[in-house]
Design goal:
Number of strands: 24
CATH architecture of the largest domain: 6 Propeller
Shape: globular
Protein name: F-box domain-containing protein
InterPro entries: F-box-assoc_dom_typ1 (IPR006527), F-box-assoc_interact_dom (IPR017451), F-box-like_dom_sf (IPR036047), F-box_dom (IPR001810), Gal_Oxase/kelch_b-propeller (IPR011043), SCF_F-box_component (IPR050796)
CATH topology of the largest domain: Neuraminidase
Pfam families: F-box, FBA_1
Strand content: 35-45%
Number of domains: 2
Strand order of the largest sheet: 20-21-22-23-3-2-1-24
Order of helices and strands: HHHHHEEEEEEEEEEEEEEEEEEEEEEEE
CATH superfamily of the largest domain: Kelch-type beta propeller
Number of helices: 5
Largest sheet: 8 strands, mixed
Radius of gyration: 21 Å
Structural class: mainly beta
Length: about 375
């Protein structure tokens, strides 16, 4: 399209057309005109342009980041996928873990435990300042969550940390310290301690559903299992009812997942049972899905395949498969040019969102 043609179109038609274009194309079209550049860079346009197709993001055994794009599921035994290595700057960062994603932004740590906010699509990156409330490394544990608070138009990082019971400084301390980071304010602050015991199961990141971050925890006293939800707006914890058939003292050994925007609870083992909360916050809406015949172990549900409510993407450290709940069968995912050993960190959607958009930069 020529510059003159683009400028002659009514603004509302131009905007409507641009919304259907992929992020990479929009990046090129910024140079068409000042008007197009202004439109594509507008925060409101960015918010409404997010493509909801989920791509996988993973960390390789050699500390690199890769994205995996699954191609549409056809009636074949194998499903093809395309792998792409992400490169943000030189020298390259040696990545360690994916902590969460929201609106196309991904929270990740490097091998030195530094925290970064990245956009895998635009390959932008910003480093998050270290929390002044961080407990000493090697004597404590920490888990994170990441999400977006629509009430303040702000991205929030939540940190829950606690002392290792073998530490020399506070061996009897069982406090669960909660801190939050505001991207808009570029600052950390302490909140009241969590009343729940997060030192159970795995050191998992918070699962984001309905603007709440979720963890499997134990209540105090008594240590019965529960799902807790941390509201990004209210900065408070509440409880989510477990499925009736889940044994209360064993629930913490399951995994929380998100499938199609819904909260899920997965029990890896015999039967690989998956519960999905069809209506958020309603305990009676938990629906059980039995996953049979999956040979990879350990396995974890990652997302729903594009355009399907019946194809669940499952993964372990070396393999990705798609399980159809109607046919009760698996199809292998063939990753072209992909790494051999990896850990699936989660998913992200393509977005123009900039990691530094809301950050208040320090004055020089």
């Amino acid at each position: 399209m020529s510059t003159s043609t683009g400028n002659n179109l009514p603004p509302e038609i131009t905007e409507a057309l641009l919304r259907f274009l992929p992020v990479k194309s929009l990046g090129r079209f910024k140079s068409v005109s000042k008007t197009w550049n202004s439109l594509i860079s507008n925060p409101q346009f960015i918010k409404t342009h997010r493509h909801q197709t989920s791509n996988l993001i993973l960390v390789t055994d050699t500390k690199f980041l890769f994205t995996i794009e699954l191609h549409p599921c056809l009636n074949r035994d194998d499903i093809s996928a395309t792998a792409k290595e992400l490169s943000f700057r030189s020298p390259p960062i040696r990545w360690e873990q994916i902590l969460g994603s929201c609106n196309g932004l991904v929270l990740a740590t490097d091998e030195n435990d530094a925290i970064f906010l990245i956009n895998p699509t635009t390959q932008e990156l910003c480093k998050i300042p270290q929390s002044p409330f961080l407990l000493p490394d090697g004597e404590s544990f920490v888990m994170y969550g990441f999400g977006y608070d629509t009430s303040t138009d702000d991205y929030i990082i939540v940190s829950i940390s606690y002392w290792d019971t073998d530490n020399e400084h506070n061996p009897d301390c069982t406090d669960m310290f909660v801190t939050v980071y505001s991207l808009r304010n570029n600052s950390w602050r302490m909140l009241p301690n969590s009343p729940y015991d997060h030192a159970v199961g795995h050191l998992t990141s918070g699962v984001l559903v309905n603007q709440n971050l979720h963890w499997l925890t134990s209540r105090r006293p008594g240590y019965s299992s529960t799902i807790v939800a941390f509201s990004l707006a209210e900065k408070e914890f509440s409880e989510i009812e477990l499925p009736d058939s889940i044994c209360n003292d064993k629930a913490v050994f399951n995994q929380l997942v998100v499938l199609g925007g819904k909260l899920g609870l997965f029990g890896s083992g015999v039967g690989n049972d998956l519960w999905v909360m069809e209506q958020y916050g309603v305990g009676a809406s938990w629906t059980k899905i039995c996953i049979h015949g999956v040979e990879i172990d350990p396995v974890k549900p990652v997302c729903l395949a594009e355009g399907s409510n019946r194809d669940i993407v499952l993964g372990d450290e070396y393999e990705v498969v798609v399980y159809n709940t109607d046919e009760k069968r698996c199809r292998n995912v063939r990753i072209d040019d992909g790494p051999i050993g990896f850990t699936i960190g989660g998913t992200y959607v393509e977005s123009l969102e900039s990691p530094a958009r809301c950050m208040v930069l320090p004055r020089s």
